[in-house]
Design a protein that fits this description.
Helix 7 packs parallel to helix 9. It is globular, with a radius of gyration of 20 Å. It is about 25% helix and about 35% strand. Strand 18 and strand 19 form a beta hairpin. Strands 14, 15, 16, 17, 18, 19, 20 and 21 form an eight-stranded antiparallel sheet that branches. It folds into two domains: about 270 residues, no CATH class; about 100 residues, no CATH class. The two termini are about 20 Å apart. It is α+β, with helices and mostly antiparallel strands.
Length: about 375
């Protein structure tokens, strides 16, 4: 359900209309420009004995449209109440014991996972979750936070509003996952010879910004005269770099994209998500048609033709906010491709989800990964 004009009373009324029972959980996805007192909302939902979790994102998705404000409200069957993981700013992260619950399910659960997209140690947290749950579940989720890239509390659950945290909830659904990005290689391979978490300090043993700047400017200035030439700097970095992400090389698969969003005073490139030292990188370049085509491929891979369409219950879309910034007016085509394919399979199901700061999904043979500039689609199936 999409609510465009929201307040605490309307959210509570919408949830009660869904008639949640024991074993149900309510997912709440807010656009960051929503005017909601989240502390009061949490108190109200706790008083009503509603099991819930969610987050605040740069935008939300409903069908073929995206919104900066409003709320997506969804009801799911869950194996357990949502689990809050705090302290992601620290290197040691306490991962809850979830494997016994996952193994008790008669179907392979879907671990819906939300994380503060601007915190440290996201990869370590996901590694801990995968170490705990392994292939006993499939994962889907994304990074919460603000398009301003200023970190602030962005995850909500019965315990409160949190930053530097993650939330995971095991849902009682089979899921078919599609993960694609469509970015094309421009230059590489390049080795990230010195990194620190999400900071790239050196590329090929040289200052990271200088190496990256030379590659980007050479491509960006093709066809421009001297008066139009672009010079990449700290002030214009975000606007230009959105078209030139890094790709972490994966043999036999699409690169895993890392989004450089800023350069600091030391010439270090700040990315959304960690880049391990000595990772082999490519510099990628975007083409609108290829990106939109990748969304079509992703959704197609989630439609199980062997499954009766009547089992299709939900389609969740986690689409990187930076894809909207790159595609601009053509971004609606990406969402409409997904919406049309899902509706043609089961008209009652509307794709819904988030514009995220990083995307979470099982990948390849089941490993868990944190992506950037990628579209992740999960189609959830369940018997009546």
């Amino acid at each position: 359900m999409l609510q465009k004009n929201i307040n605490i009373a309307s959210i509570l009324e919408a949830i009660k209309a869904m008639e949640p029972i024991e074993g149900d959980v309510i997912l709440l996805l807010f656009g960051e420009k929503s005017e909601v007192n989240y502390t009061d909302l949490i108190e109200t939902l706790n008083q009503a004995n509603i099991s819930f979790f969610g987050g605040i994102f740069p935008g939300i998705i409903h069908g073929g449209n995206n919104y900066e404000s409003g709320c997506i409200i969804k009801k799911f069957k869950a194996i357990q109440a949502p689990s809050l993981i705090k302290g992601l700013e620290r290197e040691k992260i306490d991962i809850p014991s979830l494997l016994p619950l996952a193994e008790s399910s008669d179907i392979k659960p879907t671990a819906f996972t939300l994380v503060d997209g601007l915190t440290k140690n996201i990869s370590s947290c996901l590694m801990g979750l995968f170490h705990e749950l392994g292939n006993a579940v499939n994962f889907i989720g994304g990074g919460a936070g603000s398009l301003s890239l200023v970190q602030q509390p962005c995850l909500i659950c019965p315990e409160g509003v949190y930053q530097d945290a993650a939330i995971v909830c095991l849902l009682k659904y089979d899921v078919k996952l599609g993960v694609k990005h469509g970015w094309q290689q421009l230059e590489g391979p390049i080795v990230a010879t010195k990194t620190d978490g999400n900071k790239v300090i050196e590329l090929n043993w040289q200052a990271a910004f200088e190496v990256y700047k030379n590659i980007v400017e050479e491509d960006a200035n093709i066809g421009l005269d001297e008066n139009q030439a672009i010079s990449l700097n700290a002030e214009n970095f975000f606007g230009i770099a959105k078209g030139y992400p890094f790709g972490m090389y994966q043999e036999g698969k699409e690169d895993v994209v890392r989004d450089p969003i800023a350069v600091n005073e030391r010439g270090e490139l700040i990315c959304v998500g960690d880049i391990p030292e000595n990772t082999v990188l490519n510099v990628l370049k975007g083409d609108a048609e290829k990106l939109i085509e990748s969304a079509e491929i992703a959704v197609e891979s989630t439609i199980d033709l062997k499954d009766d369409s009547e089992r299709l219950r939900h389609t969740l879309v986690v689409d990187c906010i930076s894809r909207t910034l790159f595609l601009e007016d053509t971004f609606s085509k990406e969402l409409e491709v997904v919406n049309h394919r899902v509706k043609s399979t089961r008209s009652e199901v509307t794709p819904q989800g988030i514009l995220s700061l990083g995307e979470i999904s099982s990948y390849g043979e089941g490993t868990l990964e944190f992506f950037n500039k990628t579209i992740v689609i999960g189609t959830l199936y369940r018997d009546i």
